[in-house]
Amino acid sequence: MVFQRSKNRLGKRVCKKLYLRCHHNQRKKEITNLSLKTTHRLHNLKNNNCPAQISITILAPHQRHRGYLVEVILQHNHNHTINVADALRFRPISDETKSKYYDLFKQGHSPSSAHLEYETNLMYQQNAQLLADRNVNPKISDIYNLFNKWRKNNLGVRTGKELFADLEARINKYNETNKDLGGKASVQRFNNSEGKHDIL
Question: N vs C: which end of the chain shows fewer Cβ within 10 Å?
Answer without folding.
Answer: C
